[in-house]
């Protein structure tokens, strides 16, 4: 009897996993938007590329913050490692973009793996300080090694070859945009499969109650090390895309401002949803671009005001609030149907 109940429960869990892995119509519609943007905004490929790169960067933080609950104020360290990897390769004759992308993700993942052990020693506040400290160390290291990184002047002379030896990066950003969107989609697909697997469900459990998970047989520390390494590799890939599309790397890729903006983007879109980071990136980059054009001196004030209002009235972020609204409407509809059937 007990065995049959357990078998039924396990079957129900597997069924839910399979259902959650299926792509929904809204997801197909969402990924049609980059294609429509390609034709609708032919003069803004550079801005569209920036949105795709920022979306991938936000996705990398969502994996460790939205799912595992590890907050970070130094995620730009991995972004910068990826950017400088491509920059140094391009300035020394290694111009293959796909090789640069893979090595950037690899080196950023190694840095994330090594620094992840420091995160296991403390609570949320100490983890926050560790991530910030790692980012500041990398920023000052890049600032001091001027002969290698170019320091405050940046790293010029980066040469990026054609993709697959065929598609050259053009000055209008057309190839860079398509390349960035394809990389974003592939990495998003992998992240989607990851978070909908038992591994991803264990991350959610760690975020909700890390003390209880060992009793269920979940190795919490190993899970955190793995997801932190994966998130760092994703951030390194985003940095590589920025260096390849701009063909220039500066200290800005390691700045605290970039990490702070990233956390704001994720909270704005909705953490723990994957799509929240992408939506937050679209809103943030577009607001940044439009407000800086309207008011070059005080655009940060208006951007801050808009973000504060969004957070006040949409505490779960844009995507989280939308899901809550849809769920509440569904519950009200079901309640009315039950009331009608009983009457």
UniProtKB/TrEMBL annotation:
> How far does the signal peptide extend, from start to end residue?
none
Q: What is this protein called?
A: Branched-chain amino acid ABC transporter permease
A Pfam family that the UniProt record links to this protein:
BPD_transp_2
Taxonomy, top ranks, is:
Bacteria, Pseudomonadati, Pseudomonadota, Betaproteobacteria, Burkholderiales
Ranges annotated as spanning the membrane: 28-58, 64-86, 98-119, 177-195, 262-287, 299-322
Q: How does it sit in the membrane?
A: Multi-pass membrane protein
Subcellular location per the Swiss-Prot or TrEMBL entry: Cell membrane
Q: Which key words are in the record?
A: Cell membrane, Membrane, Transmembrane, Transmembrane helix
Query: CDD domains recorded for this chain?
Result: TM_PBP1_LivM_like
Q: Which domain of life is it from?
A: Bacteria
